[in-house]
Amino acid sequence: MNPMAKLLIIGGVILIVIGLLWQVGGRFLNLGRLPGDIVVEKENFRFYFPVVTCIVLSVVLSLIMYVIRLFR
């Protein structure tokens, strides 16, 4: 199989799995509403910046990539 085709298929499967986990996990985890996320609400304006959520996702993805590289 062509390496690029294999990479695209694996990437697609990973995105599907992440989407399903996000859909199901959103009901059980408050990902995106963690303490430390910045929310500013005014009358006609709402600003939301998930600082802590970004940090948590970065750490989790870094650990996953580290484990993948260990077994490669």
Automatic annotation (TrEMBL):
Domain of life: Bacteria
UniProt-listed Pfam families: DUF2905
Protein name: Uncharacterized protein
Cross-referenced InterPro entries: DUF2905 (IPR021320)
Species the sequence originates in: Aneurinibacillus soli
